[in-house]
Design brief:
Catalytic activity: ATP + protein L-histidine = ADP + protein N-phospho-L-histidine
Radius of gyration: 30 Å
Enzyme class: transferase
CATH topology of the largest domain: Rhopdopsin 7-helix transmembrane proteins
Keywords: ATP-binding, Kinase, Membrane, Nucleotide-binding, Phosphoprotein, Transferase, Transmembrane, Transmembrane helix, Two-component regulatory system
Order of helices and strands: HHHHHHHHHHHEHEEHEEHHEE
Structural class: alpha+beta
GO molecular function, one term: phosphorelay sensor kinase activity
Pfam families: HATPase_c (PF02518), HisKA (PF00512)
């Protein structure tokens, strides 16, 4: 085999290994799926290039073209997820998938239509692909450069710089193959580009916590072993069926399906384990809070009942013990309120009543125990003459407690926590601002997603719960954050007609 064929085969193995690592994080990171699909598309292109060198045949060229086309939208998707702009630019992303998906289907259609194959292999088709992909890729690299300039933390800057370098090598050298198809006399360096760009992306994924955590060496070894088995299987098929193109296609397709099935099984097992851990963490936090809320009334009930039992055993009358009977009744009613509150917490069904937001803030902050947070300065900036809201005290108090707790946890070395209220557009605005660690672009984009958390002991339900509570009141919630400069969460609630006296 030629050097070009060996380079393509080596790049194919590395890309399959990285795709396996990315598949492990599908569902846990928005970058997992696009990176996995990008690696699969590029490994398909490298394998088709190897097959073209080793066995020939126009079909492999069409498969390589299809893989090249699908690498453009997946690269855009991955970069948008990395810089935290995936949702804001979703229309551009989906439009790119649609356009390049149609072109990729046309390429595959050339396998059964010689006329369509000639069109796909034509200079005009290659020129159209270049014209469509160039502005998208340039814009993507512009977003990465902008992200690099605005980030303050050295780890994120190193992550972005390495990723920018790896993708630049990959795209630039892969573009030589497209230029060669246009009839220009340039060396085809696409395989070398993927081989050179791969290590930079792998370092970002493995050691710079691209997916929010450092992937273990076990994952890396498993993915590498699986990719090597796949590549050796491909080589065996090519050696046995070198002259039979139909058997080559069937054999390589079967190996690919087997690799995907094995990877899928591993991913499902890993994901199921993570989901069980998340459910246990969530259940633990919920149970701990419920136990705390039930402990006091149960203790009061027990004390009053034991006292009355002792009095009864001594033969003393209960005529002067009416306050204990009232205490028993009060605590039973309190337990009933706690149970009803937790039922409403699960369903997020507010019982609306006129509510003074300033009084709510004062009440919540007085129960936080700031003595346990050394170095944190509390500031209250509460607007006077604030309109009343139609709200549920328990739900909004729990939401505010979540925000204050998050702010305190974001300032382990101290800082300033500011809670503000103000009137805006005939509504009430409540904001919680900290001067803590802040969030990067990817965390900001997913902050309100269910079960998303960057804490090792977190359930990922705090901000998601806050959003549901505010929306159940007909309001809106917004978040602004910058790494190293803190976070502000703003709740906008509609005001009722009555004013606070």
């Amino acid at each position: 085999m030629t050097t070009q064929a060996w380079i393509s085969l080596g790049a194919c193995a590395g890309l399959l290994a990285l795709a396996g690592l990315a598949l492990v994080r599908v569902g846990r990171s928005p970058m997992g799926l696009p990176l996995a699909v990008l690696c699969i598309a590029l490994s398909t292109w490298n394998f088709a290039d190897f097959a073209l060198e080793h066995a020939g045949g126009p079909g492999w060229r069409l498969i390589a073209t299809c893989a090249t086309l699908m690498s453009v939208p997946t690269a855009l998707h991955f970069i948008l997820a990395f810089v935290g702009e995936r949702r804001r630019l979703a229309v551009v992303m989906y439009a790119t998938y649609a356009v390049f998906g149609v072109l990729a289907l046309l390429s595959l259609g050339g396998l059964g239509s010689p006329h369509l194959a000639d069109e796909v292999d034509s200079r005009g088709f290659s020129l159209m692909v270049l014209v469509l992909s160039a502005p998208l890729l340039l814009g993507s690299f512009g977003l990465l450069t902008w992200h690099l300039r605005r980030e303050l933390r050295s780890t994120e800057r190193a992550r972005t710089g390495l990723l920018l370098t790896g993708l630049a090598l990959l795209v630039t050298l892969l573009g030589t193959d497209v230029v060669a198809l246009l009839g220009q006399d340039v060396p085809r360096l696409g395989g070398l580009g993927t081989l050179l760009g791969l290590p930079a992306i792998a370092v970002v994924a493995l050691r710079l916590r691209l997916f929010g955590q450092e992937l273990s060496n076990v994952h890396a070894m498993y993915a590498l072993l699986l990719s090597l088995v796949g590549v050796l299987s491909y080589l065996t098929v090519f050696r046995v069926f070198a002259a039979r193109h139909g058997a080559l296609v069937v054999g390589t397709a079967a190996i690919t399906l087997a690799l995907l099935a094995i990877t899928r099984r591993g991913v499902i097992a890993f994901t199921a384990q993570r989901e069980r851990l998340e459910q246990m963490v969530t259940l633990g936090r919920f149970s701990a809070q419920m136990a705390h809320d039930l402990k006091n009334p149960i203790a009061a009930l027990k004390g009053a009942a034991q006292y009355l039992q002792v009095e009864h055993a001594r033969g003393r009358p209960w005529d002067d013990k009416g306050e204990f009977l009232e205490l028993l009744l009060e605590q039973v009613e309190r337990l009933d309120r706690v149970v009803s509150t937790y039922q409403r917490l699960g369903r997020v069904e507010p019982l609306l009543a006129p509510l003074d937001v300033n009084h709510l803030v004062t009440s919540v902050l007085s129960l936080q125990g700031f003595a346990g947070s050394p170095g944190v300065e509390l500031r209250r900036e509460l607007a006077e003459d604030l309109p009343r809201c139609a709200g549920d005290w328990d739900l909004l108090a729990t939401a505010l407690e979540n925000l204050v707790r998050n702010a305190l946890e974001a300032m382990p070395r101290g800082g300033v926590l500011t809670v503000r209220t103000r009137t805006e557009d005939s509504g009430v605005v409540l904001s919680v601002e900290d001067t803590g660690e802040g969030m990067n672009a990817r965390t900001r984009e997913r902050a309100f997603d269910d079960f998303y958390t960057t804490k090792t002991t977190g359930s990922g339900l705090g901000l998601a719960y806050v959003r549901r509570v505010v929306e159940a009141h007909g309001g809106r919630v917004a978040l602004t954050s910058h790494e190293g400069r803190g976070t502000t969460v703003t709740l906008r609630l509609p005001a009722s007609a009555t004013r606070v006296p």
